[in-house]
Amino acid sequence: MKRFNKISAAALLAFASQQSFAADITVEIQNLTHGLYFTPIAAVAHTADASLFEVGEAASTEIQMMAEGGSLDGIATIGTAIGADVIANPAGGLLAPTMSTSADLMTADDNVVLSVVAMILPSNDGFIGLDNWEIPTEAGTYTVFINAYDAGTEANDELRGSGEPGMAGMPVPPPLDPLLGNGGTGVAGADTNTTVHIHRGNIGDDSLTEGASDVDNAVHRWLNPVAKVTVTVR
Amino acid sequence: MQYLAKHYKKALVLTLPFLLAACGDDDTREVIVEVEVPAEVPDPVPVSYDVTVTNLTNGQPVSPPAVVLHSEGTLWEVGAVASVELERIAEQGDSADFLMLGDASGGGVGPITPGDSQTISVTINDITDANLTIAAMLGNTNDAFTGINSWSLANLEVGATYTTVSPAYDAGTEANTESAATVPGPAANGEGFSPSRDDTGFISMHPGVVSSDDGLSTSALTVEHKFDNPVIRIQITRTE
After folding, report:
1. Which residue range(s) make up the domain with B173?
2. What gap in Å lies between CA B177 and CA B199, rounded to an integer?
3. ipTM
4. Based on the structure, what is the number of domains in chain B?
5. Which CATH architecture has domain A22-233?
6. A139: which DSSP letter?
7. Strand bridging mode A197-198 / A227-233
8. Interchain pair B202, A98: CB under 8 A
9. Given A34, A100, A218, which is nearest B210 (Cβ)?
10. Same domain for B226 and B128
11. pTM
12. Chain B contact set for A228 (CB, 8 A)
């Protein structure tokens, strides 16, 4: 009985420390893909009861803004509302294939989990997602491989178009402009699964002037994982 | 420590007669005897691993895997430019040059067909904290390869096994045209290694093969050659 109490006390202590320790961390994000770009990345340390996105649930308007157009404005608003510590746009723009970016973050006592999001291009509403990953309390270097999600908010037509939420098509920033085709007829209608889910990938086609898609099928497809997040806890 | 003690004893025995002789004389002499004992070289202790690679794909032969033990650094990694040694594996499945890298290595014999396994043994003397790197081509592609990058073996005890799976990587050295002329595997019997580079230039995750069935009209591949991650299973057992 005595022993049991000791164990419980230790467990409680561990639990308590996990719940309330500020952390001094570096977050590095690497684009592992062959041909996708990441829009400005948000790495957000927040409380365990908050969440930027949840698989199987409809994306928030703020996640939709990020996933359809790469805008972090909504994520910044959420960050302020939930008292998060936020790294915004560490790459200073797009993160090209296989490139890395990193930033330091001091987290507040209660911000014990980390979420990371950024839109993937070319896509209609694809994004890289790390969802409420518990920040370790022990100093060290930790690696997490993350997948591509579909926000479920826009039809994956794979056509040049708009990055505004609710507007069809994909935003096409300068580095992608010469790589994408024109004149596609459109790949797909609205998602069957309109909640956040694992992205099914681009189909693309092999024509720059016709076909169903403006995406190049030999360049802009991917297999998971698509990003590596390396967290160093000091 | 055992060897040191033995040497000390020998030296002591040799010194004693002089000391005894000195006792009988009037003047005390200090005699220093230097005894050179050749250091005994301990027999090298072999540290061996069995590495079993299983092909998890439907239609991709895995080229004979290169298994290399090395002390530091990486022989390939995502974001880096592929070495020519790696390019030879990724474009042709030829591991001869890659096997020369590092401190010890072992190469597979013949391709591993889908569903099949191959075990490669590799031995290094005295070093129990080597890093392990593996590379092998997915044969019916332009420059896809799989493997692991510099895994520390420091915590693998004798008799213990690590098991992991590996995804497909793209060497970034040859465009993924999937054309009959450029895919060396049995699906096309095209060209293998070519020194020219016409792709991203960096090692990345592989985007998968498209195939002619899925809309790449010039592809020599069919839906049979498509794959998803992971593509191989790796089991590493330390045998001694």
Report:
1. 46-238
2. 10
3. 0.87
4. 2
5. Sandwich (2.60)
6. S
7. unpaired
8. yes
9. A218
10. yes
11. 0.86
12. 78
